[in-house]
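One-letter codes give the sequence; each number marks local geometry. A record appears below:


***
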Amino acid sequence: MLPPDRGLVRASARAAVLADWMSSWLDERAHVSIATSYRELALAVERREVDLAWAPPAVCAKLRALARTMLTVVRYGATSCRAALVVRAGSGIRSLEDLAGKRAAWVDPLSTSGHLMALVHLREHGLDRRGLFIEERFAGSYRDALLQVADGKADVTSVFVVADGSAPTLNELEDLVGPKARALELLCTTAPAPYDALMIPAHTLDANALERKLLALDQRMSPPAMLLEVCRADRFVRANVEEYSRFDEVIDPILFE
């Protein structure tokens, strides 16, 4: 099962092609479905309806006790990413403490780089979002969240950091919001956090064999391994499952109810 993607039609078409590829790769019929929400994805694993799930960090955190193993991705040689907190240029915000009484525009409640990593970063610096911000809203995309900050409708947001771990440059922000990137500046970057992971639940039959096959996939294979393309991975490696526990305290349980 895959998590919700960029529109049902596109995701469904991708799922059908992936199912054909996996059936050939596994030499047995495979079915690929698209969850309508993170809650549905989590419930499917809990109900033992899924043998392999592509799960974002929030779901990995919630379900890690049910996992036989989790395989995260290698992208550009890295298995983790950072987020960057971005504020309006000239706002006078120079530290995390300066965010007191300010407004935040996040991407989505379960967005890793666009929300959760920022909250973890605040907690690790002794700050609680409930007493810090006077308003929090969800914009739905990195572009819209950045525009709210650039236009003065919000004071801070969080974005993904490029693969090499360096801070976002003006050019990278311009790719998202155009000339309005000049109204933005970097406040800080977060500590690394693990990428999404392929979760093999403990109930999956032949889990060890499936894990070996997944670890053997490589982007240099010919023909290309479609599962790697779907997960935007060069290859898979075993994840440190407990790394996902960093998200426990910042995930709203209501999102899974």
About this structure: Residues 200 and 210 are 8 Å apart (CA to CA).
